[in-house]
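Format notes (please read before filing issues)

Several people have asked whether sequences and structure tokens are stored in separate files. They are not. Every record keeps both together, in the order shown below: the sequence lines, then the token lines. Line labels are part of the format and must not be stripped during preprocessing.
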Amino acid sequence: MDSRKYLLILVLTAFFYSSKAQTVPVFTHADSTAYGNFITGNFSLALSQYNDILANNSYNTTAQYYAYLCNKYLNHELGASYHAAHLDTGQQNYEHITNFGLIDAGLESSLKVPNDLYRGNASYTRASLSNRLSWRLQLEQSAAFFGQQIDKRPNATFKTAFNPDNQFEYYGKLSYSVTGNFSLYGAYHYLNTNYQDNTYNSNVGIAGIKYTGTYFDIWGDFDWGFMIDHHLVQYNAGLLFYPLGNLNFYTISRLSNLTQNGASQVIFGQSVGFKAIKNVWLETSATFGNLDNYIDADGLYIYNTVDASKLKLGQTLFYQAGKHAQLQINYTFEQKQDDLHNLTYNQHSISAGILWKF
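Then the structure lines:
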């Protein structure tokens, strides 16, 4: 009896250690597989695998660190910050990241040239600043100025008499990370327009949700406000798809329904981007529909010029100049409608910008 008792104890002990030994390779294999996908540039798949590891052990700082990096390389700044909160002090210091601090600062400027006798050249300049208010809360702000000379006289047969159309804009957006891949955001856009000795104040609010999946991001928002004499409501849905698990190839689709003064219209936008050569990306975009007071990019851009665009096509080149600076140059073609003079005309724009990431 005693020998059988000791044998049973021996078997149970062996089984216990065998069970523990079998659990270790599971996590080791998952960790090594995730790292392999990270090294080969499939950040989406690596992030999914690191999230699986964290679901079993949220204190795994190695998995948290690579989840942070995967989000950074996918331009998920809010998701990266969410995981950075769980890094140890050494990792945070190495990445120069704190729960309160600057994220990026940018400057863009453009020149718009219309081939309409009654429209002068236009300019647009915007400065931006983004900062982290906490590990889960981020603030984006912009100040912009638009200016153009406009002749509103109908059928003028003598020298045009231009009037300045000047506009100052402020934009603020708060984003909050509920989880590592689900966030809420709200934004406010203020416009002060001076035209023909009159001053107009316009206010637009935006509320939205966003989910970042394995190979896609999906979002939707509701926009409302007053643009001079127009009360408007706009619903938007967007999809960013990156099938390679990185931004070497991606598509952005956006569908909007804009209602103002009781009339509704549907607007569709599509962009396709890819990595052309080292540090260089190209993005082609098109927007179809009547863009009169159209709200774009989570409320960052509002198309409220005197003449509405009916078609907008663009080509952008992005260049990553080192670790911190991203340069971009863009060409945009717009087909616009001058209703006062019964003219359809084209407008060509060139813009350049820099984004500095801290």
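For reference, the curators noted about this record: The chain has a mean pLDDT of 90. The domain at 101-357 is CATH 2.40.160.40 (Porin).
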